[in-house]
Amino acid sequence: MRNIMKTKLFLLMLVIGAAVGAAKNNAIANVVMQDGSVKENVFIDLPKGWANKIKIKSGNTQETIQSEDVDHFVLWHSDNPDEKVIIKYLGVGEYNSKKDKKELRNSKGWMAEFSAGEHMSYMIWFNKIILKSNKIKFEINDNSHYFLKKGEDYAFRIPVNLVKPSNTRNWLKAFLADDPELTAMITEKGYYNKKRPYHQGTNYNPFFFEDIALDYNPRQTR
């Protein structure tokens, strides 16, 4: 009798464990491939920022996709379908503002789109995606801020300098020099507020990159 009870208890624990395991993956996505095809409403294993492949599941079919083959995917929490975020696999670049030179790195990563204007997006290169009760959060670090200009395949890292913010401002003015009206507003009081910074997780950022991406409108070619 005791062995039967143990077996029943073990089976119950297995069932509970399976239910909890199934409930953990609340991430759903529409995956848009480079060839234009779309995999809709699939469960997705959330990629780390540097993952070169992702796993998706639709019904009983599981598939592994190379990150290079994905244009982007639209991600949402099953308990909050109205809050969606675009995730892109992008090349990474550095911009030397003193030499006015773009340097492309031999690496790519998954980035989340935090804001998108007509001509530029503000992207976050995350370490990992974290699912909360009904929200999607991102673990990031100080080197996670990027701008992606329209028509480019490479996102360029924004060097955030909290000790000397003028260095960041000078970089922004050089990188966005084709919009002189915008760069004229990048000052100690424009697109910057130490008392009301943006917080992304534990990351502190007093620069309003989200607003800069929305307002950027190039008027001439460099």
What are its keywords?
two-stranded antiparallel sheet, 14 strands, alpha+beta, 43% strand, 5-stranded mixed β-barrel, 222 residues, disordered N terminus
Task: Provide an overview of this structure.
- By secondary structure, the protein is of the alpha+beta class.
- It has 4 helices and 14 strands.
- The strands form 3 sheets. The chain has a 5-stranded mixed barrel with strand order 6-7-8-11-12. It has a two-stranded antiparallel sheet with strand order 9-10.
- The radius of gyration is 21 Å and the shape is globular.
Output the strand order for the largest sheet: 6-7-8-11-12
Radius of gyration, taken over Cα atoms and rounded to an integer in Å: 21 Å
Low-pLDDT runs of 5+ residues are: 1-23
Helicity range of the residues?
10-25%
Strand/helix succession = HEEEEEEEEEEEEHHEEH
Provide a compact summary of the structure.
The protein has about 220 residues and is of the alpha+beta class.
Task: Annotate the secondary structure layout.
Elements: H1 2-24, E1 27-33, E2 38-44, E3 53-58, E4 61-66, E5 70-77, E6 80-96, E7 101-116, E8 120-125, E9 128-131, E10 136-139, E11 145-149, E12 154-157, H2 165-175, H3 180-184, E13 198-200, E14 203-205, H4 209-215
Parallel strand pairs: 6-12
Antiparallel strand pairs: 1-2, 1-5, 2-3, 3-4, 5-6, 6-7, 7-8, 8-11, 9-10, 11-12, 13-14
